[in-house]
Design brief:
disordered N terminus; 6-stranded mixed β-sheet; 272 residues; 11 helices; 18% strand; globular
Length: 272
């Protein structure tokens, strides 16, 4: 079953992909994510391989969800928690930028799989500033074809996989001619500092003791070896999986990502 809906009580639209009924649910929650456009095959493969329902969340200021001036870890954790409660989900497995909710409300979480993110303050690389600039340039140019938008974005990003991921944010304008961004680029651009500011400092006050798999890109700097001791204090049961790619692991290396998730979940799920 594949269904999409925009709930009126939460800032998260979603895709639900079900395989067979299970006592447990697998919830995918990505901050920078548009499930309507991206990685549907990945969701289907996870639902098939794990026999679980997959909820692909589209959080505030991304994809089709509402826009909100507040855009930080805590607000998006609020969105995910509200979604879990509104849909009666029981101890979900969170995948993506999901550490904040796991630390704050561990009773809701069966396991957590952070993707190229660590529980430390980290200044976002200049790549993100370039992406904002590139997307703004596309919006200002009022292009009519995806190929023209890609031509502009090539000045800011060489990787085709990353450009395709970024270009999934384009939709047709009301006039039916030009392309425009579905995301509030001004809000996102102004929130970069907030997204580099992790809300927890003391592992004694916020800790998640459940199964945890950190997946990191070996060409990314966001989960450096130096921060592994800090990860261990917040997530004492953490495991580490390296994938040969940059920060955008799911777009760059979807198959190694899928294999890592499936192996981890099956091993900790006990075959249920």
């Amino acid at each position: 079953m594949l269904a999409r809906r925009l709930p009126s009580t939460t800032a998260a639209s979603y895709l639900k992909i079900s395989q067979r009924t299970s006592r447990r649910q697998l919830s995918l929650a990505f901050i920078k994510y548009n499930p309507v456009q991206s990685n549907n095959e990945e969701h289907q493969a996870l639902a098939r391989d794990l026999g679980r329902s997959v909820y692909a969340l589209d959080l505030r200021n991304h994809g089709e969800s509402p826009h909100d001036i507040v855009h930080n870890y805590l607000s998006m954790a609020d969105d995910v928690e509200e979604f879990i409660q509104n849909h009666g989900l029981n101890r979900v497995i969170l995948i993506g930028h999901s550490m904040t909710l796991a630390l704050r409300s561990p009773n809701l979480v069966e396991a957590v799989i952070p993707v190229d993110n660590a529980p430390v303050d980290a200044t976002l690389k200049s790549d993100f500033i370039r992406y904002i600039q590139g997307l703004r340039s596309i919006n200002d140019a009022a292009v009519t074809k995806q190929i023209d938008a890609d031509g502009i974005l090539q000045k800011y990003e060489k990787s085709l996989a990353i450009r395709q991921f970024l270009l999934s944010n384009l939709i047709r304008s009301a006039n039916g001619k030009t392309l425009k961004l579905r995301i509030p680029i001004k809000i996102l651009g102004g929130s970069l500092d907030d997204l580099g500011d992790f809300p927890y400092r003391d592992p004694e006050e916020a800790r998640y003791d459940g199964p945890t798999l950190f997946i990191r890109g070996t060409k990314s700097h966001y989960v450096a070896d130096e921060v592994l001791p800090v990860i261990g204090r917040f997530f004492p049961r953490f495991e580490l999986q390296d994938i040969d790619c940059g920060h955008w692991i799911i777009s760059e290396k979807p198959e190694p990502f899928r294999r890592a998730v499936v192996e981890f979940v099956k091993r900790h799920d006990g075959g249920r």
